[in-house]
Design a protein that fits this description.
With 199 residues, the chain is an alpha/beta fold. It has one domain. The protein contains seven helices and four strands; from the N terminus they run ααααβααβαββ. It has a four-stranded mixed beta sheet. The two termini are 20 Å apart. The relative contact order is 0.13. About 5% of the residues have low confidence.
Length: 199
Amino acid sequence: MIDPPADACTRLLGRFRATDGDTGQLVHDFTDPALDTRFLGDLYQDLSELAKKKYALLQTPVFVEEFILDQTLEPAIREFGLPGLKTLDCTCGSGHFLLGIFARLDEHWQGYAPALDPRERVQKALNSIHGVDVNPFAVAIARFRLTVAALRASVEPSLVTAPAFAYHLAIVDSLLGAQGTQGALFLDQQGHPRALPVD
């Protein structure tokens, strides 16, 4: 794994901000309904055999994800309602389940509060989603995928004018408890596992 140089990041951002010289329209529009980020998870899991084995990288098939959310998220929404609902994927990887949860919550919020501003509705859906993973690269991909989904759902075509959405993602080993091999290195002052937030 490598850190991309700053100029590469600048070029990538410039690519997303590019406009057509004649019309002034964005070349890459995040409201494109065909824009799908699943390939990022597929690509990431196949980049490195070592990372694939170390982090057990394998995306859940869509039909399995839909079945699990039908059996868990939908009953939770019926029982507890939308306001204040919290979900957690404690091994979120590149965010496949988080995206499925987001899509369903956004749709439920549209029905529950149809007059809400799209940006506020999207943030309410994001507020219910929590994800952690031990792999910082996977969490970064999950955050990017959620950002693209949030832009599309809020009908926001540009990163320039997009709001600063808040996410609840962290880099932490969710299986590491007080008896873990690293012990106190990963515990906060109250003895709880320490999470590294992703800003």
